[in-house]
Structure formats: C-alpha cells, structure tokens
Amino acid sequence: MLDNPPPLARPPNEIMTVQRRRRPWLRAVLVLLVLGAGAAGWWMLARPQSQPPAVAAPPAPPPALTVSVMPAAPRTLARVVAGDGSVVAWQELVLGAETSGLRVMELAVEEGDTVRAGQVLLRLNDAVPAAQLAQAEAAVAEAEAALAMARLDLGRATELSRTQNTPRQVLDQRQSATRQAEARLASARAARDEARARLAQTQLRAPADGIVLKRTALPGAVLGVGQEMLRLLRDGRLELDARVPELDLATIAPGQPVRVLHGSREIAATVRAIAPGVTPESRLGTVHIALPADAGLLPGMFARAEIRGEAASRIAIPQESVVFRDGAPSAFILKGGQVALRRLTTGARLNGMVEVLEGLAPGDQVVTAGAGFLADGDHVRVMQPLER
Predict the structure, then answer these.
(1) Which one is the CATH code of 126-201: 1.10.1660, 1.10.10, 1.10.3470, 1.10.287?
(2) Which of 40-54, 68-82, 237-251 has the lowest mean pLDDT?
(3) Residue 133 belongs to what H/E stretch?
(4) Which of 199, 332, 351, 363 suits a disulfide with 367, CB 3.0-4.6 Å?
C-alpha cells in the first residue's frame, strides 16, 4: 500500500459549480473598470481647456547697412541728346582745269594755306592762248575799219540819192555792206572775248575765301579738261556730322547749343541743320553742327556731341542712386526701416543727376549712399537725409 495516496479526481459537475461561483467576482471587476474609464473621459471633456503657450516672435534681423536717403523731387534739367561723328568741311570746293593741253607752270599755294577770293592759286602755260587773243584783237580792229568804210560809203550814197544822182540799187548795196561789216565786227569781238576767256583760264583763282585742303596738280603736268587740281575748304568752316537716334531727332532744332567733346577739350557749337533722312540699317539720323573758327579740329577727326534741348521740370535723383538689376536701371526706396527695389525708366543725365521718367513719385525716400550693396527687403540704418 502506498503511504500518500493521490488525490481523487473531481467529477465534472463539481468543476462547473466552482466556475459559476467565480464569475460574479469577475463581472464586478469589469464593471468597475468600465465605470472608471467613463468617469475619466467625462472629466477630461468637462474640465476647462488650457490655452497653448504663446510662441515668441522671432527677433527682427539686425540692419544690414547704414545708408543715406533723400526725397525724390522735381528738378529743372535740360534734356541732352548725345551723338558722335566725324568732322567734315562745311563746303568742300573741288577746283579743276577748264582747258586742256596746257602745262602747269607754277603752283602758288601749299596744303593748309589760307587764301582769299580772287587770289591766284595756279598758273598754266599761256603762250598759245595769248597768241590767240592777239589774233582775235587784230581781227576786231580789221572789222572795225571795214565797218567804218562801209558807213562812209553808205553816207555818200544816201546824199546822192536825195538829188537823184545815184540809182536806188547802189543805195541798197551800201546799206547791205554796212550791215555785213557790223556782223563781222560782232563776230570778231566774240572771238576776241573767247580768246580772252581762254587766256584767263590759264590762271586758277580762288572762288571764295578758304583753306587749301589738298593739292593734286604738280608743276610740269599737262592737264585735261575737268581734271582735279585743288580742294578748298570754303571760308574755313568745319562741321561735325553727329549721328543721333531717330527718336531724338524731334527734340532737336537749328540754333540749339551743343557741347563738342574731343578728348579733354570742350568746344561750344550750335546746330546748323538736321539731315532729312535716316539710315535704315542703323536707324540713326545726322545733325550738322557748326564749329567755331577757333575749334582747332581738322577734317576727319572723331568727336562727341551733347545737344542740349529745352529745360523741363522732372524728377531727378543722384547718379549713385541708380543701380542695375537684371540689366535694367533701378533704385531702392526706404519704407519703415526696409528697402524696396523699384524699376526705373531713366532719361537725360546732367551734372551727376539722372532724369526719372517712370518709377518714382515725389517724396519717395531714395537710397543714395550704399545702394549698390543692398537687396530687396533688407533692413537698414538711416543716416541724416541729404539736402540737395
């Protein structure tokens, strides 16, 4: 026999009875848990919601630069149209030979000489024209003598015809001979004048006051009709043919003052005329600018012109206020410690000021010093505004 016998197994009906005894306790625990969770949820919904903590605003960025500003205001500026071109002669006279087959005997001038109207510039061999003139003058003398004799015969015939001592036919012959003698005299005089003109052509005289620009004839050369011998600058007057944009031609008129710049030299000039055409390829027109006698320029030199138009009152800002952003002129405007970029349409520039056609209004605070280092929206520190 065993000392400790194993416990006897319980019957199934007893096991079910024990489980039924434990279920009421579990149900009570579950009910309490559900009631606790509901109470906690109701308390969370019923309690006043607290406000979230306020987020502190980020501090303002420190000023990027100290700048100077000035108010935009209308100023009286003379509109300036710029152009450039070459110095040319006002009138360049080309003097050529009027006769042919004659040799150059003497050149009385050199290039650059100043000459007067009527001054002899060149002499040709005049031996043949002089002989022709002498022959023509002799023919004139012969014709005058023949005319005188014809007039005497006509006078005698007229007296005899009154007494009827001469036939009418003789009187008519004397009258016809007189008219023929008059015609021969007129022809001889014309030939003499022609020979005199040919002789005069052997001396080339200046048609007007001027300066000798070029001398092509040489002593000993035999010239042909129309062959160039000299070039003369009439009255010594020079002009600057300035090329300007076609849109600016309407603002230019004869008599306007012009400042001509050649290197470091400044020359006061005036507009003489505006060419009626525009070059299609370049869209540029030509303005003829009369230069003073003491300009010191020479034909062919290159110079720049500033044509000043009528003064107009427009908004103008200092040149240092204009900056270029994306290839366009702009300026910075101060608003509440920040700067804003404004696109501008500019016009004339004069004495360090730039004309503003669009982009600014009177009173706008325009940044002057330091504008080139700014960007749109930068905070700045402002110095005392400049007064100009």
Answers:
(1) 1.10.287
(2) 40-54
(3) helix 127-162
(4) 332
Structure tokens, 203: 């001396």
Cα–Cα distance measured from residue 279 to residue 209, given in angstroms and rounded to the nearest whole number: 33
Q: Which fold has domain 65-77+313-382?
A: 2.40.420
Instruction: For residues 228 and 200, give the distance between their C-alpha atoms in angstroms, rounded to a whole number.
Output: 18
Tokens linked to 195: 């020979």
What residue spans define the domains of the chain?
65-77+313-382, 82-90+237-310, 99-124+202-236, 126-201
What pLDDT was estimated at residue 2? Answer: 42
Dihedral angle at the C-alpha atoms of 28, 33, 39, 40, nearest 10 degrees? Answer: 170
**Model confidence pLDDT, tens digit, residues 17-74:** 444 455 555 565 555 665 555 555 544 555 555 555 555 555 555 656 788 888 888 8
Show the 3-state SS of 178-230. HHHHHHHHHHHHHHHHHHHHHHHCCEEECCCCEEEEEECCCCCCEECCCCEEE
Report the C-alpha gap between 311 and 300 in whole angstroms.
Answer: 33
Contact by Cβ (8 Å): 310, 348 = no
- Average of per-residue pLDDT values in the chain: 82
Class of domain 99-124+202-236: mainly beta
Residues above pLDDT 70, as percent of the chain: 81
Q: What is the DSSP string of 322-365?
A: -EEETTEEEEEEEETTEEEEEE-EEEEEETTEEEEEES--TT-E
By residue count, the chain amounts to 388
- Residue closest to 144 by CA, chosen among 103, 189, 203: 189
Torsion sign (Cα): 211, 215, 218, 224: negative
Q: For strand 65-67 and strand 380-382, is the pairing parallel, antiparallel, or unpaired?
A: parallel
- At 134 the three-state DSSP class reads helix
Judged by DSSP in three states, 41 sits in helix
> Which two tokens mark 46?
């019923």
Encoded tokens for 23? 């279920």
Beta bridge partners of 58: none
CA 38 to the chain's CA centroid: 92
Structure token digits, residue 151: 């007039």
In contact, 356 and 317? CB cutoff 8 Å: yes
Question: CA–CA separation, 208 vs 234, rounded Å?
Answer: 6
Fold of 82-90+237-310: Elongation Factor Tu (Ef-tu); domain 3 (2.40.30)
